[in-house]
Amino acid sequence: MVTVKYPAPFTSVLVTLSKPILCIGLCAILSSTALNGQEESESLENIVAQLPAEMAANEVDPLTVEKIIPDITAVKMNFKLGWGIFTVAKSTMEINPIKYNERDAIQISAMTSTNSFADAIYRVRNHAISTVSADVSESFEYSAKQEEGDRIRDTVVYFNTEEKTARYVNNKNGENRAPIDILPGTFDPVGLSFFIRCLDIKVGDELVIPTSTGKEFFYTIVRVKKKVKRKFAIGRYEAFVLEPDIKDVGGVFKKSPNGRVRIFLSADDQKLPLRMESQVTVGNFWAELSEVVKQTETDGT
Predict the structure, then answer these.
(1) Exposed/middle/buried for 286, CB within 10 Å: 0-12, 13-18, 19+?
(2) How far is residue 184 from each of residues 62, 67, 181, 255, measured CA to CA in Å?
(3) Hey, which residues does 229 pair with through a beta bridge?
(4) Per-residue pLDDT tens for 138-167?
(5) What is the Cα–Cα distance from 135 to 129, expressed in whole angstroms?
(6) Separation CA 284–CA 87 (nearest Å)
(7) Are 213 and 128 spatial neighbours (Cβ–Cβ below 8 Å)?
């Protein structure tokens, strides 16, 4: 975590918010340990060998699992972010089909910025871009530009899908790490959030998915806890409630042994990320989908 120059609880929540909201909590929360923790990656062989048998049985193979890809003509989703009763930031996610090195791909772009109220305390401007294969089976590239207070980061991770490696580059300080080994079908944090939206999930599922930040390879674990019907900002929906495993996550979660994160995905083919909320010792923070903009509304056609 960054050095705190303002009231610790509020600042730490803003920093924590800025990372998970980029993909509405689905996995950047889980990757915070890899991004800010150990400098050296454990070997791929050891990580795979240490996976408990019951979890290995639930490992998802992104290359072969059946998917229902959401309609990406609804390219723009706007979110409000808050801490308790206060709205402190906004986030926008745009999804577009593109070409990447002559291959068909999907680009997920997520931007987060604090509002004027929060800017006066701790300014955040983050932009992450994930590029995944057109069939949503693996990541090609992940870049992140982060401005958090006086801290600026500019990083990119290149996924070599033929050699099964991921390479981390820090454009700010010139760091260029050696490639690390990954499994076929490995996703970056933002790409993983879109991949989960493509799965035909059901209550009781435990998803174990290969993930990498370029610094480390690890498994993201997400459990489908239940299905609810309730009102959200954009209307009333039936939704799946997902809970990521946060036992190894640092920051405010480390100090919150009973903390948890819940993600609400619409229980239809679109799997819209309707809401993310977390309970930690310094308070509750949340993100709510406030608007879905169709492509025809943005390009004037």
Answers:
(1) buried
(2) 8, 17, 10, 34
(3) 238
(4) 999 999 999 988 999 999 999 999 999 999
(5) 17
(6) 12
(7) no
Residue type at position 48: V
Contacts of residue 291, defined as CB under 8 A and 6 or more positions apart, other chains included, come to 77, 78, 234
Q: Which residues pair with 266 in a beta bridge?
A: 239
H helices of 140-197, in order, are 189-197
- The Cα 137–Cα 62 span in angstroms is 5
Per-residue tokens: 75: 């390219």
CA distance 51 to 56: 6
Nearest to 20 by CA among 241, 240, 278: 278
Q: What is the pLDDT of residues 187-222, one digit of tens each?
A: 998 999 999 999 999 999 999 999 999 999 988 889
* Dist. CA 13–CA 11, nearest whole Å: 5
In the beta sheet, which residues pair with residue 77?
93, 292
SS3 state at 184: coil
- Tokens representing 175 are 């760091």
